[in-house]
Amino acid sequence: MHYENHNLNIISDFPIRTIREDDKDIDLIVNLDYRCLNLNIDELSIINSRIQFSLTKSIIIRFCKGNVDNRCTIHFMRDSGLHSSMANFEIEYFNKKIIIQDEENSVEVFIK
What we know:
Elements (H helix, E strand, L loop, with lengths): L1 E4 L2 E5 L4 E5 L3 E17 L9 E14 L6 E7 L7 E8 L5 E5 L4 E5 L1
């Protein structure tokens, strides 16, 4: 699946759904069904390979409408509740791709 909106570009082997939208923000969810997630970020030279999150239920991505700041917040969720985020971080997504790949034993997330 390919999702492109307001300069946000996501390529995913999993369905991407909009779960909330208002005048300013859009929240997307990618359900992973409690898979091991490996986060790979090209620009982090201090990390040797990847950052791993076990039993990840879903990914929530919140971004602003319009092309004002081109930042989004990414949440890795342990469960369905709003307060079950294992980790969250903000990225500048202009001219970047978020790639979510289904591998045999994991989900690989690349930010390139």
